[in-house]
Specification:
Distance between the termini: 18 Å
Number of helices: 6
Radius of gyration: 16 Å
Largest sheet: 2 strands, antiparallel
Order of helices and strands: HEEHEHEHHH
Strand order of the largest sheet: 1-2
Helix content: 40-55%
Length: 174
């Protein structure tokens, strides 16, 4: 999906090209991950950060992101775009990342959280998982590494990572 949608996020002006990685990650987080990323106020960020440091959990995770659980929810503006739980399965992932759930959705949610909230977001995601569980490993070895790779490449080149699918298949796939 990253490769197929990349042209939609490239803008050209004369000889110049601009790639909007943030928009692509945000859109795929909604469509694939069922995750709406939010921009909390500085006060909310500080309050929730302090709670997280003390307890290892957020008091109000919805301040940072909303997980779209019901694609049929008429109140969510994102529901028409979200592919839903049954769109993806574990197929294609190495056995260590499979848990019988929707791992593609978890992967994309992890990429979005890592990309937009950095290490803080990664700790939020990991606090919800058991160490060494398939989801935990998928986040650490796949989603977070992928988000860092995307950011680094886009920062240095201003363009998209070439052959993203091959990297994902080598890293996460059978």
């Amino acid at each position: 999906m990253f490769e197929a949608t990349r042209p939609l996020y490239e803008r050209r002006f004369l000889f110049f090209r601009r790639y909007d990685l943030s928009a692509q990650v945000w859109d795929l987080a909604v469509i694939v991950g069922g995750l709406e990323i939010r921009s909390p106020s500085l006060i909310t960020f500080a309050r929730e950060g302090w709670t997280f440091l003390r307890t290892g959990r957020l008091a109000h995770p919805e301040a940072f992101f909303e997980i779209i659980d019901d694609p049929q929810d008429p109140n969510s503006p994102y529901s028409p775009y979200y592919l839903g739980f049954n769109a993806f399965q574990d197929v294609g992932f190495k056995k260590i990342y499979q848990d019988g759930g929707n791992q593609v959705r978890h992967f994309m949610a992890g990429v979005g959280i890592s990309y937009f909230y950095g290490r803080f977001g990664e700790q939020i995601a990991l606090s919800r998982e058991q160490p060494e569980s398939p989801d935990y490993r998928l986040y650490v070895e796949g989603a977070f590494a992928f988000a860092h790779l995307l950011e680094l490449y886009a920062f240095h080149t201003g363009g998209p990572l070439p052959d993203i699918g091959a990297w994902l298949r080598r890293t996460l796939g059978n």
